[in-house]
Fold this sequence. Notes:
Structural class: alpha/beta
Bound molecules: S-adenosyl-L-homocysteine
Radius of gyration: 21 Å
Order of helices and strands: HEHHHEEEEEEEHEHEHEHHHEHEHEH
Distance between the termini: 6 Å
Oligomer: single chain
Amino acid sequence: METAEKQALEQNMEQTIDIKSYNLAELTAWFQAQGEKAFRAKQVYQWMHQKHVTDFEQMTNLPKELRIRLAKQCTLISLKAVERQIAKDGTRKYLFALSDGNMIESVLMRYRHGNSICISSQAGCRMGCTFCASAIGGLVRNLYPSEMLEQIYRIAQDIGERISHVVVMGTGEPLDNFAHLLKFIELLTDDNGIHMSQRNLTVSTCGIVPRIRELADKKLQITLALSLHASSQEKRQALMPVAKKYHLEEVMDACAYYFAQTGRRMTFEYSLIGGMNDTQEDVRRLTQLLKGKNCHLNLIPINPVRERAYVQSNADVINAFKNRLEKNGINVTIRRELGRDIDGACGQLRQKYAQHEPLDCI
Ligand code: SAH
């Protein structure tokens, strides 16, 4: 996109409202303040969140004059897919352009139980985990609720099927974009939108303790996944800078609090890195840490990232790790690696693009 065009768009965004990030009550209040009837707000809301239109012109049950006025006063955020990779197992990875030219990625995974989408919550990330491609360029900006929803809407339209599950496990730290995350959840589960059940939504965090506690107090029925990746404070902080701020013990306490407040079983994620966190000592400590807790553990063979030196644990080590945990009554699965033949790991596709000239995408 030309610079002048980009500036015009940014200016336009400042003056207009991001109508797709409003809940129905806010939208209704806004319509009424404009002298419009409340039912118009509901019509517009359903066009955006159920029919997923990308232009006010498509809202055909609105008077022409209202459509023109909305187009002047509001921005109808919609994402443009600039690349789509389809893996042999049906996994699809999308690179989307935001209206300011930033890129984000989302992944569709097809399971027997339905279609699941992994969405990004930020453009870039400031958490700096050493194994993660998303950390490489740092944080660019938070995504708006509308931009989180759009990833789902555009993919649903692309495949023409219902999306049953959403995981907030793409680029970004969702609890570092907390207010927008909460609004996104509200809109995603609204019965005038796609009305997803809270139980079908998983939010993954690197462990921002005060936000885990705040989320717990909301008593939502979503699943919280904690990126654990190490069973000792020392190793965890070597992999994840955030661990220096929030110690392992505090993080585990916050997770226990989440379970106590919501009754939702925690998921722990543990990416296995050859020679780094997959030793006998690691599994012994991990067993101790999780034994007797009502939780689920997801072992993820590390997805090697071009820019990082980490290697996968070998298959025997992974299986031995799993067996030992299972013997101790811990509920554990090894995450099936979907989309290995495409740029499967977090942030890889986006990173690939960052190394090229900005795309002329809109
Ligand atoms: N910021 C959130 C969500 C994004 S990452 C979080 O930290 O949980 C989603 C999961 O993928 C996290 O568990 C993350 O640590 C993990 N991950 C990131 N890069 C990875 C890689 N190269 N291989 C395996 N897992 C990775």
